[in-house]
Amino acid sequence: MSPPRLRFAPSPNGYLHLGHALSALVTWDAAYKLGGTASLRIEDIDLARCKPGFTEAIVEDLHWLGLTWPEPVLLQSDRFELYADAANSLRSADLLYPCFCTRTQISETATATDPDGAPLYPGTCRHLSNAERIERLERGDPVQFRLDTEAAQRRTGMLTYTRIGPSILDRPQIRYARPEWWGDVVVQRKDVPTSYHLSVVVDDAAQGISHVTRGRDLEAATDIHVLLQMLLGLPTPLYHFHRLLKDDAGEKLSKSRGSVSLRDYRAKGWTPEDVRRAVGF
């Protein structure tokens, strides 16, 4: 058997904070305990928000923490053609459909929320006739492509994945995946030929990732990832979800909330050991 392979996959749309440090340290520690390797992957499909300067800062911060990884680093922005091929496979199976709805329209018509608390897409464009779809596509209306989750589940049947925790060395547990909770997720966005869900499963398979370590806030997304893995004939890794760091208001640390960055702590004189202590590692 091949040695275990893990990955840390930040998005370069801001500077790393203590929550990222915890996630990275968990990943490298798990790789050490399993006798495997940890790789760095840069998830930069959001071309509008991701900047090369942030990628350079990620590499600098992780090296400062004492972490190393095999080269070259995988950049998702170099792999759009591969993601498009995967989407075309789903399209050929009649599992994707074009969606012309705006966020405002979805918010106004949704009657439920997804596991992230966002308005659950009500399937409006799933019911468009082929003629209307063709007309709107030829007209050049802004479009994204969604997975027909109900049809996809009829193909796959009941889905499960293996979860390990709270320690990476604990006994694995089988969990049932519930992709229907997410509705018809976006597989190809309006601006790029992929989405977070699609690119993640394609790259985990391409890199031979055996164990996925990530925060508990991303556990629910595993339901969709398992479904896509089955549809695309890709392996399903083992999953380990670690604790989250929260601020004084009880909210998880995030770039969008302006959480203090690692480089800000460095400017204050913090050492890598100070960071490890701060995240309880």
Give a verbal description of the structure:
Keywords: Aminoacyl-tRNA synthetase, ATP-binding, Ligase, Metal-binding, Nucleotide-binding, Protein biosynthesis, Zinc. With 281 residues, the chain is α/β, with parallel strands linked by helices. The protein folds into two domains: 1-77 and 245-281, Rossmann fold (3-Layer(aba) Sandwich); 79-242, Rossmann fold (3-Layer(aba) Sandwich). The protein is 37% helix and 15% strand. It contains ten helices and ten strands. It has helices spanning 18-34, 52-64, 80-92, 103-109, 130-139, 149-156, 196-206, 222-232, 262-267, 272-278, and strands at 5-8, 37-42, 74-75, 96-99, 144-147, 160-163, 173-176, 186-188, 211-215, 238-242. Helix 1 links the parallel strand 1 and strand 2 (37-42). It starts with a strand and ends with a helix.
Structural descriptors:
ATP binding, Rossmann fold, Glu/Gln-tRNA-synth, 2 domains, metal-binding, 10 helices, ligase, alpha/beta, GluQ/Sye
| CATH-derived topology of the largest domain | Rossmann fold
Strand fraction band?
A: 5-15%
Quote the distance from N terminus to C terminus.
Answer: 30 Å
> In the CATH classification, which architecture of the largest domain applies?
3-Layer(aba) Sandwich
CATH level-1 class of the largest domain: Alpha Beta
Give me the Rg, rounded: 20 Å
Helicity, as a percent range? 25-40%
Pfam families: tRNA-synt_1c (PF00749)
GO cellular component, one term: cytosol
Domain Glutamyl/glutaminyl-tRNA synthetase class Ib catalytic: 5-277
Keywords: Aminoacyl-tRNA synthetase, ATP-binding, Ligase, Metal-binding, Nucleotide-binding, Protein biosynthesis, Zinc
